[in-house]
């Protein structure tokens, strides 16, 4: 017998702990018009049916509407309304914080700090969780210039330009969008540097092809910092916040997203048909599509 799916959904969004406080943030979602509980198997079957019928799981209107609500409804207890795949309305409460706020008079307190190890670092370096660990603007700009020049001179870059000339030459393109490319200002940023350099190559190739036509260039990644914003602006890219990147993508766009931790392929498949998409195969089944 399958698990029952409750009409209310509760997700622990984050937890923090310090010497003075321990707090939890929760978001609670409830169907505005409760319906009969369904088993897990019934829910899966319903989702499969909707998917096979072509119902989009993501739409630009829904993304835009949710973004507008999140910007304006910031007081704890404010209601945010979304719709599920069946069209039913779900009410969510804005972040509600609770927990021990003051331990000044406690006889003993325990604190901890969680840091993420960088999987690309042989020395097990950690990914910084504050701006103090980012590199300064001059260092980032110098590092990017050196590595992007090395990329431009590489055989791989020449092959990439050849692919652009043979496969993309007939497409009408006026926009470039990079999603989840990583931060140039964080340590061990080789992937971010490589992806950003590739986007610069695409931009320059398009300008050469179209005789310096205006190409709008955007990069969206929540890891980006104020240093990234300045360095990206220096090379002609605008750092934008979620969800603008999704809304900018259209049939005249080049999109780059390599190994993101969000469903980029699924969102783009439902919301746009960009002229060019550059991404990696994440599963063996992708070779068949």
Automatic annotation (TrEMBL):
Domain spans labelled SRR1-like: 164-287
InterPro entries hit by this protein: SRR1-like (IPR012942)
The protein's name in its UniProt record: SRR1-like domain-containing protein
Protein's organism: Penicillium cosmopolitanum
Lineage, top ranks: Eukaryota, Fungi, Dikarya, Ascomycota, Pezizomycotina
């Amino acid at each position: 017998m399958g698990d029952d799916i409750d009409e209310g959904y509760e997700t622990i969004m984050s937890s923090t702990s310090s010497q003075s406080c321990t707090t939890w943030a929760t978001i609670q979602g409830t169907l505005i018009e409760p319906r009969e509980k369904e088993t897990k198997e019934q829910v899966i079957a319903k989702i499969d049916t909707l998917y096979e019928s072509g119902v989009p799981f993501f739409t630009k209107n829904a993304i835009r509407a949710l973004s507008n609500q999140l910007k304006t409804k910031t007081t704890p207890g404010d209601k945010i309304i979304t719709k599920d795949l069946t069209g039913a309305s779900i009410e969510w409460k804005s972040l509600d914080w609770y927990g021990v706020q003051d331990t000044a008079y406690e006889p003993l307190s325990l604190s901890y700090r969680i840091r993420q190890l960088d999987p690309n670092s042989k020395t097990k370096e950690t990914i910084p969780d504050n701006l103090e660990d980012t590199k300064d603007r001059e260092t980032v700009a110098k590092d990017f210039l050196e590595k992007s020049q090395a990329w431009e001179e590489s055989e791989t870059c020449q092959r990439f330009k050849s692919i652009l000339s043979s496969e993309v030459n007939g497409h009408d393109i006026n926009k470039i969008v990079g999603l989840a490319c990583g931060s140039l200002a964080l340590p061990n940023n080789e992937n971010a540097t490589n992806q950003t350099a590739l986007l610069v190559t695409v931009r320059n190739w398009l300008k050469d092809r179209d005789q310096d036509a205006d190409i709008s260039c955007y990069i969206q990644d929540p890891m980006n910092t104020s240093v990234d914003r300045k360095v990206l602006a220096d090379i002609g890219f605008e750092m934008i916040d979620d969800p603008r990147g999704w809304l900018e993508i259209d049939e005249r766009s080049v999109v780059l997203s390599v190994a993101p931790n969000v469903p980029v392929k699924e969102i783009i498949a439902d919301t746009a048909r960009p002229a060019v998409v550059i991404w990696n195969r994440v599963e063996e089944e992708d070779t068949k599509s």
